[in-house]
Design brief:
Blueprint lengths: L2 E3 L6 E3 L5 H18 L12 H5 L2 E4 L2 E3 L11 H5 L2 E9 L2 E2 L2 H14 L8 H16 L7 E8 L16 E8 L5 H5 L2 E7 L18 H12 L4 E5 L4 E5 L3 E6 L2 E4 L10 H12 L4 E3 L2 E2 L8 E6 L3 E8 L2 E2 L7 H14 L10
Parallel strand pairs: 9-10, 9-17, 13-14
Antiparallel strand pairs: 1-2, 3-4, 3-8, 5-6, 5-7, 7-8, 10-11, 11-15, 12-13, 12-16, 16-17, 17-18
Length: 350
């Protein structure tokens, strides 16, 4: 890894190599993007290898590394036990959407599982903004996907969290690959999956933790049934969320979604959808829906940062409503997309 650490910045500056002209061009575009965003932190990945140009790009504890050289210790508790928290976000118009909200949720998740933030939230913000600015300056890169992870760090074998003293942070940025257009125009199929979530009945309920075994098993089942998502059904028979999404249903014209008191992930996209729904005059209620009642709902959709709003047209093979994306779902999707690209008060978009 040919990088140089600097005390002024957390990132690694690329050393020069053959192809320096191409590298300089990329660096100039990245610098222009940083200046446009007012970002002081430099997180340029090593250049100019093909891997660095195409992505994904990786930073470990603030140091840019080639993906093929990215290493995390086998004694890291995130690897050993899933002892970690994370956030996933995307860009709109080249800017990280709702970054402050994502970082606050990351900090909340960390508090719930007693992992200390390794650096202040403001530094995390600068790291993400600079990484995104670097990524979107590259040829052919439009919008980006960002995954930010915090593990408890390296410790002795054993479950005692006190053995780890230095949390580790990893950031991955990659070109965004959204669902295909037909997923929005034709809708998706989902299954229901009865289980108990990892954080249920613990103080960590609602945290975005790295232990995704339940979601992995749920998605394995979904794939076996040619479905795109699994709706999690709790021990009371209530649909609480998707394996990797929040869930909404429309019943008698009212938009229903489970309350955060159910231990669901407080989705950033979910919050925006609720704001948009109220602006459109849509009645919203916070309540769960029993699995057997799904067949009586007019519309169902799931939401997440990457997928936005995806209409659900089949559940366990049975059609939802007319078997096509519902009018309210499509109305909310249109309004949501307008909202996320509109400047917020006193802020740049995203």
């Amino acid at each position: 890894m040919s990088t140089i650490k600097s005390p002024e910045v957390f990132g690694a500056l690329a050393s020069r190599s053959p192809g320096q002209g191409a590298a300089s061009s990329l660096e100039e575009r990245a610098q222009e993007r940083r200046e446009e965003l007012g970002v002081a932190v430099d997180v340029r990945p090593p250049l100019p290898t093909p891997e660095s140009v195409r992505g994904p790009w990786v930073w470990i504890d603030g140091v840019a590394v080639e993906p093929s050289e990215a290493r995390v210790s086998v004694f890291d508790r995130g690897f050993l036990y899933g002892d970690s928290v994370f956030e996933t976000l995307r860009t709109y118009d080249g800017r990280a959407f709702a970054l402050a909200e994502h970082l606050e949720r990351l900090a909340r998740s960390a508090r719930l599982v007693h992992i200390e933030l390794p650096v202040p939230q403001d530094q995390l913000r600068q790291e993400v903004e600079a990484a995104v600015a670097s990524a979107v300056s590259r040829p052919g890169v439009g919008e980006c996907y960002v995954r930010l992870m915090l593990t408890r760090g390296i410790g002795a074998l054993g479950l005692d969290p006190g053995s780890a003293v230095q949390p580790l942070r990893v950031m991955i940025v990659a070109p965004l690959t959204p669902p295909p257009p037909e997923a929005y125009t034709q809708g998706i199929g989902v299954i229901t999956f009865a289980t108990q979530r990892v954080g249920d009945a613990t103080p960590a309920a609602g945290a975005k933790v790295g232990n995704y075994l339940v979601a992995v098993l749920a998605m394995r089942e979904a794939r076996e049934h040619a479905a795109a998502e699994a709706l999690i059904v709790d021990s009371a028979g209530q649909v609480v969320e998707g394996a990797t999404s929040n869930v909404f249903v429309v019943r008698e014209g009212v938009l229903l979604t489970p309350s955060e008191r159910e231990g669901i992930l407080p989705g950033i996209t979910r919050r925006t959808i609720l704001e948009v729904a109220r602006e459109l005059g849509v009645e919203v209620r916070f309540e769960t829906v029993a699995r057997e009642a799904l067949s009586r709902c007019e519309e169902v959709f799931v939401s997440s940062s990457i997928r936005e709003i995806l209409p659900v047209v089949r559940i366990d093979g049975a059609p939802v409503g007319a078997g096509a994306p519902g009018p309210l779902t499509l109305r909310l999707l249109e309004a949501f997309r307008k909202r996320v690209r509109a400047p917020r008060a006193g802020q740049e978009p995203g």
